[in-house]
Design goal:
It is a single chain. With 86 residues, this protein is mainly beta. The protein has one domain. Helix content is 0%, strand content 51%. The chain contains no helices and 6 strands. The strands form 3 sheets. A two-stranded antiparallel sheet has the order 1-2. Strand 3 and strand 4 form a beta hairpin. The two termini are 22 Å apart. The model has no long low-confidence stretch (mean pLDDT 76).
Amino acid sequence: MTITTTRSDEGTPHGFTASSFASLSLATKGENKFDYGKFEFDEAGHPLLSDAATVIRCELEQAVPGGDHVILIGRAHDAGQATASR
């Protein structure tokens, strides 16, 4: 299970779950997904699941239209044990 989180330029947290990095998530809009877990924020304001085993930070490389979804392709630039203070 992968939980992917980010924040908008306005600071609103967004996220979805996927069974792998290559799967298509069928996440719905409108529901506050951050009500269902304990999240903390790193120094840049990105939401992190506080009991995650690992955090991989990515920059958005490309957003590709995929029917009624958008396929997000990220470039990993940092990985390590999860702590909100990183």
